[in-house]
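Field log, afternoon session.

UNIT: design team B
ACTIVITY: writing a sequence onto a fixed backbone
BACKBONE:
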């Protein structure tokens, strides 16, 4: 797999929009020739003492270690792992000599700005301007060749591609299905106040056993939740949602921090409903917690900058995001068979490492396209390949998967007859259980909108199995014969061949209800239709902020930060205590799938370790 081909792939796939696949990108020519715009980028420097990171993380999260939960401050992290002053000065001098302005941030990131020609000189890359519909952006063409003066110091250069590549992991039941639901929708066999499809955080708290924490006065007081997002929102929507549930919240609990200028005005097209539900869900589960919303434009650079700000601020005890992208799309100018060279992923990874060492509980949605992670980014003519979603695929972030709740889903066919689908118990979310219903309507799964849809999960082709996941029964390696190709050409154009049998990080880690058919209500102000209460929303984008809210409760219950939750999750599974006893912390999910990986006893790539009994799990960490 050549880097030139990866550059071409980036241009072809730059057509993606939140509304669906748009026209193919048109190359307008070399950026320096067609535009005088100033180009910005973030240069992530390699960490010092990187070979000691895993050992320190292991000690910080080992109950038997004298360093257990001795979390670092940002200053301590910088003192131990930030590059030396000589390394920083070497990079600064090199980029300045190319004609760029420079600002060093937190000792590990270098913000640069200048003309397109200066950027090309500094980073050995050729930038072109592209247009896809109304979207104009620039991106590299061909391979990037860092000068020798930078290659040994730089982990990755982020921001050379400015198309909005990230998409929210938010789904609604497809129209072909939703318009045939009977008025009663889904039967409620779960004894929650609301039926599946109309769930609120109140239903979540009852079903996943959060209420005993509330009874003890554990509501997130003294804790702060961070939301990293790429779309603005209307804060009054969240307050209306919480008020409708009778939750008493601080009217000043939300702080908005704009990163790289922010994301503009709220809009449906930008994904503002995603940010809205992130705040509603996390803040509703932990109603006494403060919330900081880090809002950035939808670019690689801004997404990295937002995480870096949230981690360096160190104000948030828990941080979540519900935006993602197929991890291979972020491998920057390198062969996929060389994961250590994946510059952009390394840049994000260094930030997540710092968050884990500071005791921040990070979570990310695992994706909504099942095991294929194709959320509209890949044209219909392309093959589906088994793949993982970033940032959930990173080792130091908790990957949030999804389930479907039990109950009878009631539909009416075009001829007026009833068609019921009985989901007997909570299962891994895919919509294969709707195949018969769609067939009765005369649709195949694709035209019905139910494939490829489901909880993200699988095996990373970039990140190794982390030490805390290694040894867990049920782990898998990457599958063979995974080739991304455009079948509309003769012969098919092969863009990417993924490595087979790679012992990569498995995801998701843990799950909650995410199926839109058994999903949630969202209070949201649309820029097209105004304020409304929308039901049958879902996606793993609900689970990530739910985990942030749960993390805030767990931290208050423990009286301190608890950090990366995947580590104690796997510790308990490997010790054989997770599912055992009178108060098990985790409930195993053994039904369902994500269109390739089946749910089964123990860990699986559809639901992770299962779903949490929140109070029981919180008490194991107290």
């Amino acid at each position: 797999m050549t880097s030139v081909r990866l550059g071409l792939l980036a241009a072809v796939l730059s057509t993606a929009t939140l509304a669906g696949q748009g026209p193919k990108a048109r190359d307008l020519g070399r950026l320096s020739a067609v535009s005088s715009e100033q180009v910005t980028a973030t240069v992530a420097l390699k960490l010092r003492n990187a070979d000691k990171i895993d050992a320190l993380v292991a000690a910080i999260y080992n109950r038997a270690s004298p360093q257990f939960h001795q979390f670092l401050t940002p200053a301590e992290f910088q003192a131990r792992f930030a590059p030396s002053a000589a390394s920083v000065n070497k990079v600064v001098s090199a980029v300045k000599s190319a004609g760029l302005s420079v600002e060093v941030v937190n000792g590990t990131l270098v913000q640069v700005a200048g003309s397109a020609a200066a950027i090309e000189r500094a980073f050995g890359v050729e930038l072109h301007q592209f247009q896809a519909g109304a979207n104009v952006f620039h991106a590299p063409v061909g391979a990037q060749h860092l000068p020798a003066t930078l290659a040994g110091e730089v982990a990755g250069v982020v921001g050379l591609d400015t198309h909005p590549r990230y998409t929210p992991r938010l789904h609604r039941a497809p129209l072909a299905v939703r318009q045939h639901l009977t008025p009663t929708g889904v039967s409620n066999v779960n004894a929650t106040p609301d039926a599946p499809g109309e769930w609120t955080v109140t239903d979540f708290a009852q079903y996943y056993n959060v209420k005993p924490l509330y009874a003890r006065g554990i509501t997130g007081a003294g804790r702060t939740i961070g939301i990293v997002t790429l779309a603005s929102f209307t804060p009054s929507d969240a307050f209306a949602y919480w008020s409708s549930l009778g939750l008493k919240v601080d009217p000043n609990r939300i702080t908005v921090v704009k990163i790289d200028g922010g994301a503009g005005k709220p809009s449906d097209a930008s994904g503002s409903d995603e940010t809205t539900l992130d705040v509603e869900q996390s803040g509703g589960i932990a109603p006494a917690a403060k919330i900081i919303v880090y809002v950035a434009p939808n670019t690689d650079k801004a997404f990295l900058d937002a995480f870096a700000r949230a981690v360096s601020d160190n104000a948030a005890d828990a941080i979540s995001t519900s935006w993602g992208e197929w991890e291979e799309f972020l491998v920057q100018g390198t062969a996929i068979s060389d994961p250590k060279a994946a510059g952009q992923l390394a840049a994000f990874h260094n930030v997540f490492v710092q968050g884990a060492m500071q005791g921040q509980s990070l979570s990310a949605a695992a994706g909504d396209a099942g095991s294929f992670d194709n959320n509209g980014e890949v044209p219909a003519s392309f093959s589906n390949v088994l793949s993982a979603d970033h940032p959930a695929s990173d080792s130091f972030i908790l990957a949030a998967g999804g389930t479907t709740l039990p109950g009878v889903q009631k539909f009416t066919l075009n001829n007026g007859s009833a068609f019921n689908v009985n989901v007997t118990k909570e299962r891994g979310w895919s919509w294969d259980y709707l195949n018969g219903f769609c067939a009765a309507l005369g649709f195949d799964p694709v035209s019905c909108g139910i494939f490829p849809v489901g909880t993200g999960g699988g095996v990373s082709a970039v990140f190794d199995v982390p030490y805390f996941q290694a040894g867990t029964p049920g782990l898998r390696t990457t599958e063979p014969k995974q080739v991304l190709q455009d079948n509309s050409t003769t012969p098919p154009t092969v863009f990417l061949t993924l490595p087979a049998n790679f012992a990569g990080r498995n995801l998701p880690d843990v799950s909650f209800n995410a199926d839109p058919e058994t999903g949630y209500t969202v209070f949201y102000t649309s820029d097209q239709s105004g304020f409304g209460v929308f039901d049958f929303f879902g996606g793993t984008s609900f689970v990530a902020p739910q985990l942030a809210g749960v993390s805030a409760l767990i931290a208050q219950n423990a009286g301190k930060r608890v950090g990366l939750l995947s580590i104690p999750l796997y510790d308990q599974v490997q010790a054989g205590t997770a599912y055992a006893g009178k108060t098990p912390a985790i409930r195993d999910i053994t039904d369902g799938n994500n269109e390739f990986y089946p749910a089964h006893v123990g860990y699986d790539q559809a639901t992770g370790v299962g779903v949490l009994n929140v109070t029981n799990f919180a008490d194991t960490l107290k």
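LOG NOTE: Residues 240 and 494 are 50 Å apart (CA to CA).
NEXT ACTIVITY: expression trials, pending approval
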